[in-house]
Amino acid sequence: MDAFLAINQQGWDNRTELHLESDFYDLPGFMAGNTSLREIELAELDVAGKHLLHLQCHFGQDTLSWAREGAASVTGLDLSPKAIAAANHIAAELKLDDKASFVCGNVLDARELVQGEFDLVYSSYGVLCWLPDLATWARTIAACLKPGGEFYLAEFHPVKALLDGYDYFYTGQADVEQGGSYTENSREAENTLVSWSHDMGELVSALIRAGLVIESLREYDFSPYNCFENLVEEEPGRYRQRLEGKPIPMVFSIKARKPEC
Ligand SMILES: C[S@@+](CC[C@H](N)C(=O)[O-])C[C@H]1O[C@@H](n2cnc3c(N)ncnc32)[C@H](O)[C@@H]1O
Predict the structure, then answer these.
(1) Cα 216–chain centre separation
(2) How far is 84 from 75, CA to CA, in rounded Å?
(3) Which residue, by CA, sits nearest to atom 19 of ligand 1?
(4) Whose CA is nearest to atom 26 of ligand 1?
(5) What's the pLDDT tens digit per position in 184-221?
(6) Atom in ligand 1 nearest the alpha carbon of residue 106
(7) Which BP terms in the Gene Ontology apply to this protein (predicted)?
(8) Could you report the per-residue pLDDT of 67-86, keeping only the tens digit for each?
(9) Nearest-CA neighbor of 222 among 38, 66, 60?
(10) C or N: which end of the chain has fewer Cβ atoms within 10 Å?
């Protein structure tokens, strides 16, 4: 497993260099004050006054956007040292480093890597497929939450992954792939990444078994990102794919709470 982790760390270091310069991530716009958050998570979350832990934060745009939205503190964690170095640099440039901190490491080690318990653990868009094991992941989230704290995930739908040729069901088998990235400046890169498929039942069961209470599970027929081939922007910022004329599920969000006692 350490070998897979090392491959993904290198792969995400490579992607980070590309992403920092991409129109997709629009770093100049972000530095000028734009939020990187999308309509789904903005509508579903209120972070005011909360201590937030962002797992798999990439180079921190969403983490810092939540700080701008009024979180009391934000902590981002990611596997890629290049992403974390960029996140720290951006936070300092924006003078948000008094309430933002970033930690480099494996999300499955988050409990050992960050201090304290959080009001909100957040993760979004393109995170589950890099994890071999959702049971440990869910227990880690529960351990990072204070009693009464909330977990929120917005993620691409596993049905979309199925239509793109991946397994729908969790098989435990690692999928090792070479390719570019989802940003417009992606080259035919000799980048290798390792991923795993995770079905909805596995995800929900992992959270329940970790002691969390599921409060909502919503499915969306659009992606807020134009990050797959052949999507059509049918409304501003809403990218759809249709199957026999019917929109497919593109994204889901889940809220779960750690019981008070
Ligand atoms: C698609 S990006 C997440 C994008 C996110 N929505 C954002 O804010 O831009 C996936 C992130 O997961 C990170 N990652 C992959 N495997 C990880 C692991 N085992 N532990 C921590 N982070 C990991 C990658 O480094 C990458 O930054």
Answers:
(1) 18
(2) 11
(3) 106
(4) 58
(5) 998 766 789 999 999 999 999 999 999 999 999 999 99
(6) 20
(7) methylation
(8) 999 999 999 999 999 999 99
(9) 38
(10) C
- 244 alpha carbon – ligand 1 mean position (Å): 33
CATH 3.40.50.150 fits 2-257, yes or no: yes
Give residue 189's pLDDT: 64
Which ligand 1 atom is at minimum distance from the Cα of 54? 8
Structure tokens at 15: 């992607």
Pocket, ligand 1, Cβ cutoff 6 A: 8, 12, 56-58, 61-62, 78-80, 83, 106-107, 124-127, 130
Torsion angle, alpha carbons of 159, 233, 231, 169, to 10: -10
Q: What are phi and psi of 174, to 5 degrees?
A: -80, 140
Distance 181 CA to ligand 1 centre (A): 13
| 111 Cα–ligand 1 center, Å | 17
pLDDT tens by residue, 110-158: 999 999 999 999 999 999 999 999 999 999 999 999 999 999 999 999 9
Its pTM stands at: 0.97
